[in-house]
Sequence to fold (383 residues):
Amino acid sequence: MSYEQQLDFNETRSTAEEDLFDYSYEQPGSIPGTLNIEDDAKLPQIVLIDYNGDRANHVSNLTPEACAEYMQTNSVSWVDVKGLGSENILQRLGKVFGLHPLVLEDIVNVPQRPKIEDYPQQLVIITQMVVLKPSGEGFWLEQVSLIVGKNYVLTVQEYPEKDCLRPVRRRIKFNKGAIREMGADYLAYALWDAIIDGFFPVLEIYGEKIEDLEDEVIFNPSNQSLANVYQIKRELLALRRAIWPQRNALNTLIRDGSSVIDPEILVFLRDCYDHTVQIIDIIETYRELASSLTDIYLSAISNKMNEVMKLLTVISSIFIPLTFIAGIYGMNFNTNISPWNMPELDWYWGYIFCWALMLTTAAGLVYFFWRRGWFENFSNTLK
Fold:
């Protein structure tokens, strides 16, 4: 497989991970280091990019033992493992890279809360990556584990499909920027920064959705509008749960440092930290807007109901006096008994007079309500 083919990933993905809040837990009393492999997990694919300032080699379909050869050189090796469907391969990887059983457990038993763990020879970073669905509606959250050593970075992803790390691969291939002149710690920063920056395109889409929903709940509120608002609130909460711990992890790493992170790289990590703060601010703003949409929806429904009631009130107010007049002249008291019994029944123009009285009364009431401004919003109410 060519390097370009390896960079182009499929646009489809399994729907087994549809639930954003589907967190699995170990059985109580499980032995520490137990690996829980999902039945539908994809078999691991190991891809290695070994580079220095002069070259960049790309090797696919490696075995865990073959990766050990590249770790003995002075170049930087990026071992990218995609898929968690083989306990045997994962155990062999743990042996080759000297991973603690608890570290391997955190890598395999997904999802874990984003965090960092500093070991004497390694730095373990657990992150959450957001990937847009091919349809553009919604996203997947995927755990990405980074193990940073002296001259290597091991990344483990849940799925072998598309991720947001392609820009880093292209920078290595075409020698863009300073990445091929730097060490493994800079590569780890570049990968983490790409994962965090992957939140921005998703949030941009949700910003547009919230604007569209705002117009919808104001001008054409419906039960589906309310359902869409709650769906957006739920998905924003998932994004918040994915990015918030990463800010804490970055803050801890910047404050305490690590034996495998050069102090010069901490400056870049501060920029990465700023991105997480910006993302959290955007998410919190969108969550407040989504919450306000619920109030707007209720206000719009209430206002629409008020307009309907106003319309019914106007109609009733017009017909009540007409009903009164029709009732009076429908009593049919005998005029032969008393001259006061409905003298209008004997008029030549009595029927015309009754109609004229009712039409004049109705027109007068319509004019009165119009002068009060009650008919201004009736066109929208009748739609």
In short: The beta strands are 45-51, 56-59, 76-82, 115-118, 123-132, 139-148, 152-157. Residues 254 and 267 are 8 Å apart (CA to CA). Residues 265-328 form the longest helix (64 residues). The longest strand covers residues 123-132.
